[in-house]
Task: structure prediction
Amino acid sequence: MATQTNQPPPSKKAASPKTFLSLPRELRQQILLLSNPHLLPPPFSNIPPVPSDTNTPTGSRHDGTTFERKIAIALRKMAIFRRQMKLFVYYNNTQVWSASLCTITEIADDLRFVRMKWSEDHQRMVREGEHLWHAG
Result:
């Protein structure tokens, strides 16, 4: 009579699980850059041109050129202000999120790269905003 043992059959060694840190560095950096949709740069559109319709009741009561110019300047300033506020919110979101990632020491190098890219994007958007402001 054969004796039975309660040992499990021999199995292959389990492969080590893939983790974020086992991914290639470039891939980790891309994942960090795209990981939070709130950190994507705001979708800025060109500042819309102001319609030059002088047939409105308000426009016909005032000097056309002066009134239209004041309205155009005011609308442009409001559009630029909205753009600056979106940029401010974007900058704060990136700072809060990257500060929360600073606690993970293993990805410190990746985070430095990501912060550098965010900083470049932020500076580029600020330069574009200044160009728009001075153009108006």
The chain has a mean pLDDT of 69. Residues 62-136 form one domain. The chain has four helices and no strands. Helices lie at 25-34, 57-61, 64-101, 108-135.
